[in-house]
Amino acid sequence: MDTLPGFVRDYADGQLLPWIRQVEAAERFGATLAQVEEVALERGSLPARYQRNRSAIPVDDQLTLFRSCVAVIGCGGLGGYVVEELARLGVGRIVVIDPDIFEEHNLNRQLFSSTANLGRAKVEAAFERIGAVNPAVTLLPLQTAFSPENGADLLAGCQIAVDALDSIQVRLELGAVCNQLKIPLVHGAIAGWFGHVTTQFPGDNTLEIIYRSWEAGKGIEQSLGNPSFTPAVVASLEVAEVCKLLLGRGTPLRRRQMIIDLFSMEVNVIDLLDETGGE
């Protein structure tokens, strides 16, 4: 027990390592909580916080998630839920990009917003929140706007990007940068009772197909608004896509668009056709 792996071996109760033992190990061996979690997963011991993942996500897959890096562009309605769900899922490194501060109109739907956080940077609030939810996760808060000029630097080292933006123009720019970097982009958008989700793989022009009729300005969320439940639903679907992509499991929404109508409680998945009429 004089080493960190030995400590994990001796204190993993039924292959579950309790949180109190993770903290004790970090203090005893001068390690970070992230280092303790990685050693535990390498030895086949599951940090107890993930025990309800186990039936769907085995320990080896949990280690894969821990060693993954995902970028979330936008930390508002969609982004707040995406960031928190990724952290609770156990994705080890999350890069969060957003230039904005919380305003009063964010209070109806944005997970990290509160009256105490009004005027505070969204990424700063995300950093604090994830530090309380899962301190073994490394969250890099970047209070800056995504652009074609800085995009490659912001996404460097990330395996997947998640679109939680509210600007069609910036979404298209994000899609182009992801193609340049050859990483998948999980895209979600919301407006009122409605939303959609898709995944653009490297080399695809998925976002250009979806927004081929767009000319200028923001989307219809400006007129339809966004109640509290729509971002939670669409963000959860985005995180499910991320999980599948990181683990190489399931069927992603490549060249397909899932359209969600919460007013009628209908979900449809349509094939996306390119400009020539083919898939």
How does this model look, in words?
- The protein contains 11 helices and 10 strands.
- By secondary structure, it is an alpha/beta fold.
- Helix content is 39%, strand content 18%.
- Strand 9 (256-261) and strand 10 (266-271) form a beta hairpin.
- The N and C termini lie far apart (57 Å).
- The strands form 2 sheets. The chain has an 8-stranded mixed sheet with strand order 5-4-3-6-7-8-9-10, sandwiched between helices. A two-stranded parallel ribbon has the order 1-2.
- The chain has 2 domains: 4-62; 68-271, 3-Layer(aba) Sandwich (Rossmann fold).
- The longest helix has 19 residues, at 229-247.
SSE diagram, text form:
Layout: H1 4-11, E1 16-17, H2 19-29, H3 33-42, E2 46-47, H4 59-66, E3 69-73, H5 77-89, E4 93-97, H6 122-133, E5 138-142, H7 151-154, E6 160-163, H8 168-181, E7 185-191, E8 194-200, H9 206-210, H10 221-224, H11 229-247, E9 256-261, E10 266-271
Parallel strand pairs: 1-2, 3-4, 3-6, 4-5, 6-7
Antiparallel strand pairs: 7-8, 8-9, 9-10
Helix pairs in contact: 1-2, 2-3, 3-4, 5-6, 5-11
Structural class: alpha/beta
User: How many H/I helices?
Assistant: 11
Number of domains: 2
The level 1 CATH classification of the largest domain is Alpha Beta
* Fraction of helical residues: 25-40%
Over all CA atoms, what is the radius of gyration?
Answer: 20 Å
Query: Major sheet, described briefly?
Result: 8 strands, mixed
By CATH's scheme, which homologous superfamily of the largest domain applies? Answer: NAD(P)-binding Rossmann-like Domain
Q: Strand percentage, roughly?
A: 15-25%
- Morphology: globular
N→C terminal distance:
57 Å
Strand order of the largest sheet: 5-4-3-6-7-8-9-10
Task: Give the total of beta strands.
Answer: 10
The CATH topology label of the largest domain is: Rossmann fold
Can you tell me the CATH architecture of the largest domain? 3-Layer(aba) Sandwich
Low-pLDDT segments: 275-279
What is the helix/strand order? HEHHEHEHEHEHEHEEHHHEE
